[in-house]
Design a protein that fits this description.
By secondary structure, this protein is an alpha+beta fold. Helix content is 17%, strand content 21%. It is built from 6 helices and 13 strands. The strands form 3 sheets. The protein has an 8-stranded mixed β-sheet with strand order 1-5-6-7-8-13-11-10. The longest helix has 9 residues, at 14-22.
Length: 234
C-alpha cells in the first residue's frame, strides 16, 4: 500500500545543482526543483524506546545510516526489521515532476526513517529522510534544535533565504562540520506562520541568496532544525 511521507525528498536531478549553487558562498542561487513538504502520516503505535531490531545507530554521512548503506536492498530491510515494519511511500519533489520510490521503516516516532531508492527496483538507496529525533546526528545536531544551539555547533554560517524550496538550508562548507558538505543536508525552518507573525523579519531574510547567521532576523523568526537528510554517493 502506498502513502505519502512527512518530510521532503531531494530529486536526483536537483542534487548536483543544489551543491553547485550553494557552494559559491554568496550571490543568487540557481533555481531548480528539490524539496517539498508533504502531508503527515499518523504516528506509529510503537514504543519510543529504541527497538531491539535497531542494533546499529551509528551515522557516518555518505557511508551509512545505522545498518543502511549504499548497498542495502529492500530485501535487506526485510531481513533487518521484518516486512511488517515496512511501508511503501512516494515522496514527491517540489514541482511533483518526479515521484521517488521510498520505504518507511516504522520503528516508532523516535527511530523511524525513510529510505528513498534510486529507482523502483529498490536495490540501491538514494538518500535517507524523515528520521526520528532519537537518532544522534553528527556534531550533536538534532531535529528541533534551536538556531542558537546550531550556531554553537557549527560556528558562523550562511543560510539560504526563505520563501523557496531551499529556504533554511545551511551549506556546511566553511563550518565546523565542513567534512560533511555534500553528505549531510541541514535545513532550518521558522515558527509556523512566521511570515504573518513577523512580516518585517521574514521579508528581510527572504529570497534565494545566502544570508549570514549574524543577521538578527534569523533569531527573531525562531528558526529550528526541521530536516536532516543523508544522501548516498551515486
Amino acid at each position: 500500500m502506498n502513502s505519502q511521507t512527512q518530510g521532503f525528498s531531494i530529486s536526483k536531478a536537483a542534487v548536483p545543482l543544489l551543491w553547485a549553487s550553494i557552494s559559491l558562498g554568496s550571490g543568487s542561487l540557481v533555481p531548480s526543483p528539490s524539496l517539498a513538504a508533504t502531508p503527515p502520516v499518523p504516528k506509529q503505535i510503537i514504543g519510543q524506546a529504541k527497538p531491539a531490531q535497531l542494533t546499529d545507530t551509528t551515522i557516518i554521512p555518505g557511508v551509512k545510516v545505522g545498518p543502511v548503506t549504499v548497498k542495502t536492498t529492500y530485501q535487506d530491510l526485510v531481513r533487518l526489521f521484518g516486512a511488517q515494519r515496512l511501508t511503501d511511500v512516494r515522496p514527491p519533489d517540489a514541482d511533483d515532476t518526479e515521484r521517488e520510490f521510498g520505504t518507511r521503516v516504522n520503528l516508532g516516532p523516535d527511530w523511524s526513517m525513510i529510505v528513498v531508492w534510486q529507482d523502483k527496483t529498490k536495490v540501491r538507496p538514494f538518500q535517507i529522510i524523515d528520521m526520528g529525533p532519537g537518532w544522534q546526528m553528527p556534531g550533536g545536531l538534532k531535529i528541533g534544535m534551536p538556531f542558537t544551539e546550531v550556531l554553537n555547533r557549527l560556528g558562523p554560517f550562511d543560510m539560504v533565504g526563505l520563501g523557496g524550496p531551499y529556504g533554511g538550508v545551511i551549506p556546511l562548507r566553511r563550518t565546523r562540520l565542513e567534512q560533511y558538505f555534500g553528505k549531510m543536508i541541514l535545513q532550518l525552518a521558522p515558527v509556523p506562520d512566521a511570515s504573518k507573525k513577523f512580516p518585517q523579519a521574514y521579508k528581510a531574510v527572504k529570497g534565494e541568496q545566502l544570508i549570514p547567521s549574524t543577521n538578527p532576523n534569523w533569531r527573531a523568526l525562531g528558526m529550528t532544525v526541521k530536516y536532516i537528510i543523508f544522501p548516498f554517493p551515486r
